[in-house]
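#struct-help
A.M.: can someone run this one for me? Single chain, 67 residues.
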Amino acid sequence: MASIDTDIVSARPQMTAELMARTGLDEEILTRLVHRFYEKVRGDAVLGPIFGSRISDWEPHLEKMVA
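D.P.: on it. Structure tokens below:
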């Protein structure tokens, strides 16, 4: 299983670059998308408490989601 994880990690930069080139997605757009998504999730009556009970420090989580 470790080799699969290593393969995925090593392939990720190229896959990301190809996806960004095809879609026009860039880091700024992705950051806005992720932050807006979680803003809506956190404000949702059902989803907000679920995410809130598992994520206490949002900034590191958001950084990880756009990395």
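A.M.: thanks! Residues 24-67 form one domain.
D.P.: also worth noting: The chain has a mean pLDDT of 89.
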